[in-house]
Amino acid sequence: MSDRIPPAALSVLVALAVLLPSAAAAGFHEGGVASCGGCHVVHRSEDGSPVPVQGELLRAGSATDTCLLCHGEGAGSVLGTSVLLPGPEVGAGDFVFLLEDELNDGPTGPARSIPGHAAGHNVVAPGSGLTADSRWITAPGGGFPSASLGCTSCHDPHGNQNFRMLHDAGPVQGGAFVFSDDAPEAEGLDARRGVAESPGEHTAYRAGWTAWCGNCHGSNYHEGIAGEGFEHPVDEPLGRDMALYYDAYDGDANPDGGNAARSYIPEVPFEDGDADRFSTSGPRASSRLSCMTCHRAHATSAPAAGRWDFRVHTLSEDGAVSGSYPIPSPYPDPAQRQLCVKCHDTQGHDRGKGCLQCHREGGPRGDGVPSGGSTFGGR
Predict the structure, then answer these.
(1) pLDDT tens-digit profile of 106-121?
(2) Distance of alpha carbon 131 from alpha carbon 117, whole angstroms
(3) Residues whose CB is less than 8 angstroms from the CB of residue 90 and which lie 6 or more positions away in sequence, other chains included
(4) Phi and psi, residue 181, nearest 5°
(5) Most Cβ neighbours (<10 Å): which of 83, 126, 235, 290?
């Protein structure tokens, strides 16, 4: 029998090779088959009809609007359809809360308005009603220009091997800004499934998050140098006592009954080099506090992309005054206090107030004594 492939069969194989991507073909953001045409107008007309062309031959009016053509809807959407009915929380938060008209559920609300611009990172996507942050010319604590903020400020649209295609050190957005620190390390959910995070499956933050956030926000944010009102150490080991308290705490209804093997909650994550997205265990003494411990990367219905509202006393107060989306509590107790208590034992100390009512740089603690900011290590 001849080993040669008949010419007719060879023609079929060649055609299939052209039409079908191989098993090793790159993904959409890595030069995969036809991927360029998903974001860029390759030809001035398609199917005989003219195609509108935007800057850089984008299919939408801005880079972020182009990203939202695919990522704005469906499973794992980063822009939900309603500020009151966001999609499943897969880790980073939802930009839809930037469209909220009021976020203030604290004691000054509604007299002192906190608009949706304060909900997180104000990505510029005019086609979706998202505009630059009117409060800041540059990122608080740093120098990234607010008018340039978009999906591609953090993510490489053409793909790389980093977690969520985050940028490494170097120029971003064609040189609009330069990062000094490489992308952080993590393992996350498959956002395409549309399955919400849970204590048993969640983002595992491993290393480098605070330094990477510092690319835009400076290296001293929350340490009294960057001008931020609230002081708190960042990027420090939790230590033995703090780790033990995290493990023991199982909500206000069961503050000392927790189990170290099941103490993890995605609402208060920590950074650890051995973190696993399926782990339910609490931190070690060497586990670290990071920006992601208290904030999400995109936006939430709490000011400053908080994982919970830092201005309320109990989590049930979230949304009560503002009418905004109430962030779900990980604990069933309706009197559950804000989640600073996962690390800080404030029973009998908080005097019925939210933490930020007292712990602000130079502000009153409620007893007339100026606070020096919050402390770390004590419970």
Answers:
(1) 888 878 999 999 999 9
(2) 9
(3) 76, 188, 189, 191, 194, 195, 196, 197
(4) -120, 145
(5) 290
